[in-house]
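Note to self: keep these together.
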Amino acid sequence: MRNLLLLLLIVLSGLQLSFGQNKEEELASQYYSQGDYRKAMDLYEKLHSREPSNTYIYTNYLNCFVQLSEFAEARKMVAKQKKRFPSDPSFAVDYAWLYQKEGDDSKANKELDKLIADSKEADYAWALSLALQRRGYQEEAVKALLKARGASDDKALFAKELTSLYGDMGKVKEMVAEAILNLQDDPREMENMQGIIQNTLSKEEDWKYLTKELQAAIIKNSEDFVMNEMMLWVLVQRKEFTAAFVQFRALDKKKKEHGRRVMQLASLCMEHADFDNAVRCFEYVESLGTDKPYFYQAKYGLIEVRYKQITEYGRYTQNDLVAAEQEFKDFIRLYGSFYASQEARRKLAKLYTFYLDRPDTAIAILNGIVSERGGQAVFKGETKLELGDCYLMQGEVFDAELTYSQVDKDFKEEALGQEARFRMARLFYFKGEFERSRAYLEVLKTATTQLISNNAIDLSMLIQDNTGLDSTEDAMMRYARAEMLIYRNKLSEGLAVLDTLESVYPGHALSDEILMARAQAGLRNNNVDTAVHFLRRILAEHPKDILADNALFMLAELHRKNLNKPEEAMKLYERMLFEYPGSLYAVDARKQYRALRGDKPDEKQEKPVMFDQFRN
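Structure:
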């Protein structure tokens, strides 16, 4: 019992001492922040004597000496720390730093020279370089690391650290040399080196210098995989895909890789919408012959380029559509009507449906895919949805409804089933059966897929805000009919309905929707300028209405993709972030803005939000 009481007293005494010290530390910190360095120093002196290893107390204590210009006393205190902790070079650096603060650069440099001369062991050199950098001695930090490298058999010692240091100092040539050395020593540092380079190089001449040095390294050793990968990365950063194609075609021939490397470049060209160079890559691999391993992928890549240009980027003429049709037919003829060509046939059907105005031909193709044995259930379900779209394009509303309902039944609890139900809701909306449409939309508001949920909410709000009164119901009926006609590519008829609607109901609440429908009609007619005109009108005339953020995001996307004006697109994305920060499209706007600015892409890329309510 007596021992227990003694132990309790010791614990309580320790707690009381700790509490007292904490109070002193708080008071010292308060004096320090208020600039009362004399009072702060008196307290820090006591605290430092109790805890000489406490970095926070030591730093503030030293700064008090400096603020009071008591450099001699400061050096005495630091000298004691050097003796207490001889293996920690930070105190020796502080000793030199005090001379510099006092204005005696000669003595400061003499102390620093001694430290660098002793920097032979790797661990010590590393710790010394950190201490030097902390006091702003970047040049001396470099010398310390190089001194240790010179004393070592490892000629790439501290290459990673020196790359970073030279980058911070803006010494491009030295940084590039160390980065190359580091990569040759440890290829796993690729991503880290790319990050440092990307954050450091801003001038065109610096990127050219890096390219020249990488080329020199490759000439010395053409088998150096890491240097070749870095060269590809640099060319991609600069979007020099033509030069990249020439280089990697040569490497492919030399190493007899049968197009593997060039196929990778083709994918990068596709990502950056450089379709001409993507075609060059695919055509080269195709030319290697049918017996080579990437021949099929190259053939498919060629039709994929054409498809992406038309459907995603809207860069096409009528001749391009005709050429695309022939290329798809040639591909399908080559590989036959079996599972391997199903995706190509489905894409050709989409071209027939929405671009070549031949939904009847598309229906025959899609029915053929659906009736084939085997294949993935989800793929066939998606094909059925597109078949329903074709029926709708032809005005066969009953067949469209039946096809959508079949997919809904087959995929009741899955995202594909929700997609089918949304298309059913859209179909009823087109027909003017607004209550039936809203019944579907109410359920879809909580859909697991964000895109479906948001589309359901938007369409539901449109119906709710514009139905209820006889006159408003009539306006809504007219507008829904116009949208269906535009969806079916009956553009002149749809626009005529919109003209009548505006004439009968001038200044109606649907005014911004009417402008959006006219913009969509422009896109369907491959008239981007018309679409841009009406989108700008929405922003000018209805900046606070529900479609304003849609219009701005569409405008930015059109400038990036269809018009190929990245600088203007970047301004529009930035405007989106400032004017509509809470928009559904803000995340995608931020991502595209950063990509155009040249930022490193995020590891997790979210699926882009589609702005076209017709959702082809």
